[in-house]
Amino acid sequence: MVTPENFQDGIDIVDDSVVPEDNENIIYLGIDLGTSKIKICTNDGIMFSEHSLIAHSDGDFSQIGDGDEIFFGKSIFERTDLERKWPVRDLIKDEDAVGPGCLKILLEHCIQAAGVSADPGQMYAMISVPSVASASYKRTVLEAARHLFRGVMIANGLFCVAYGSQKFEGSLIIDMGTSKTDICRIKSNIPEEEDYLSISVAGEDVDKELVDLLAEKYDGLKATPELANGWKESYGFVGDVDEEYKVALPLSDSSQEMIITEELRLACESIIPDIVSGIIKMVSGAEPHFREALRNNICLCGGGSKIRNVRSFIENELKGFGGGRVFLIDDPEFAGAYGACRLAEKMPGEFWERLNNCDNLKTI
Fold first, then answer.
1. I need a labelling partner for 150 at 20 to 30 A (CA). Which of 27, 159, 240, 259 fits?
2. By residue range, what is the domain housing residue 280?
3. What is the CATH number of the domain that holds 39?
4. Residue 101 lies inside a defined structural domain of this protein
């Protein structure tokens, strides 16, 4: 079984001190560094979510000073005069696009907005990052976070989900995220490179598909992917429902109440075939004695897992390929942050004693 004690060689650490002696005053944070949202869970019960979005009044992020006005999160969507930046997403796409300074500002804001008031010397953080994150990406994240906490570790996001939900042996963890869908095989040890699969279909593709389908039907449509995302989060479904969903569609010179039920269904279902193909690939690529367990323990998390009927819909699609059982992880959006927090709490003391080193990076 996977435990904190048996993956010492598979974790990235920055630590400037020794293991805390007074655990009563220590705050452990799990931070899920998502491309769309940052989620934070702490051992004293804080749960916080913020869009991974930052804006600066003059758009020059390399010259941000202490007195400059900086904007964060969802409030930026309402502004047209600001240049937006998604630091986590940009860093994944281009490792030279974002320096640690911009990411540090975003992390500082999220910690403060979450209401975490402990002194940095009392805070220990486990940061959950995507499975595709490179060593350079992780170095940038560590550099951004190292002065915000007494100790910092980085772990693979899907491993954090598995740890927090106690899915240690014989399971497939599927994170239906914003910019991609990640799949991880959890067998009985630390996942290796071949146990991960990243699929380039996700929530953003649903949003764009919904806009395209509505544009085909309504001339002069002014809907944006941001609007479509809100409709998806409120009403998204696959399969059959007994309801009709009506929204105010922005057209050229007015807004009209229109039913979008069919377009919404088609958009949400558009990403399912690739996810099912990914499941089949991961199951068939495992050792024969693991396949049955993997097939019958498929666990969904991430924002996309909140689409209505998605669990039963994927199960039904798998019937033509030998079947399978699909489960929804509790509180799917916070599963990564929760698991990271639990992992930080359970770390043996010697893990927090390791020397400050950003050059010898490994991955859980």
1. 159
2. 171-201+272-329
3. 3.30.420.40
4. yes
**Average pLDDT for residues 252-263, to the nearest whole number?**
91
Interhelix angle 272-284/288-295, rounded to 10 degrees, is 150
Tell me the pLDDT tens digit for each residue of 190-235: 788 889 999 999 999 999 999 999 999 998 899 999 899 999 999 9
Could you tell me whether strands 12-15 and 54-56 are parallel, antiparallel, or unpaired per DSSP bridges?
Answer: unpaired
Closest CA to 33 of 83, 100, 116: 100
> What's the CA gap between 270 and 275, in Å, rounded?
10
Q: Could you read off the pLDDT of 138-192 as tens digits, one per residue?
A: 888 888 888 898 888 898 889 899 999 888 778 999 999 888 899 999 886 778 8
Same domain, 152 and 24: yes
Residues 155 and 73 in one domain: yes
Name the nearest CA neighbour of 98 among 81, 109, 85, 111. Answer: 85
* Distance in angstroms (rounded) separating the CA atoms of residues 251 and 249: 6
